[in-house]
Design a protein that fits this description.
2 strands; about 200 residues; mainly alpha; 6 helices; single chain; elongated; two-stranded antiparallel ribbon
Amino acid sequence: MLVGSPHEQAWKAALRQLMETEWADVRDRSEWSDERFTPQVYQQVISGKPRVAGALAGLEYFKIPDAAQRVPVYAAHTQDLLIRLIEENRFDAYPDALRFVMAVRGSGVPVSRRPRPRRTPTYAAPDPPRHVRRAGRPLLRLPPAGPGAGRPARRRPVGTDFEHGKPDPEIFVTSAGELRIVPEDCFVVEDAVSGV
């Protein structure tokens, strides 16, 4: 993961907004509270799942009545918030992750990535590598670093819509196929528990 994405913030804020407005009538019949929606709950219950599956898992975890019927509203509200947070640049790149990717690209290892909605994340963290001195430079336009610098990196984006979500290997096998590499010769950098 290159950036501290606002996914957790979007999931938590969306549920808070719903529970304090249109779902306020079921609040006392659930186990939800804003304090209970911790980073651990996000990582263990929602993170890494397809949007609908993540929404259902979150609603069931907090025992929200009629969870299955509420999934479309929660999922859509979360997505709207996520896109807004991304458009507002409410995320930062992790300096060590970026250095690692640049070193991998510079060594000639092909890199595949999962695209993010609408925008390319930018590097805005302090102490950028020497190749990235200007804050806001798009991450995916960075030049390769290290041996073989200057050669174009082979990167074929992989779509975000898959029939099966993590932990199903479909996204990883598809990425390997896009790079024309057998899965046994790949390594994956993964941040979601369900992906690991």
